[in-house]
Amino acid sequence: MRKILDSVLDNKRLTKANAIDLFSNTPWTEMVKAAHQKRIQLNGKKYASYTVFKTLNYTNICKINCNYCGFKCSQDSKGAFVLSLEEVEEAAKDCQANKINQVLFQGGVNPNLNIDYYLDCLSILNKKYHLHVRGFSPVELIEFSKIFNLQMPDLINKFKNAGLCSVPGSSAEVMTPKMRTHLSPNKPSAQLWCEAMQRIANAKLQSSSSMIIGSNETITDIVEHLDYIRTLQDKTDHINSFILWTWQRQTDFPIRHVSGVEYLKTLAFCRLYLDNIKHIEVSILALGKEVGEIALNCGADDISSIVINEQVLNSKGLTTTEEAEIFIKNAGYIPLLRDFNY
Question: With a threshold of 0.85, does the pTM exceed it?
Answer without folding.
Answer: yes
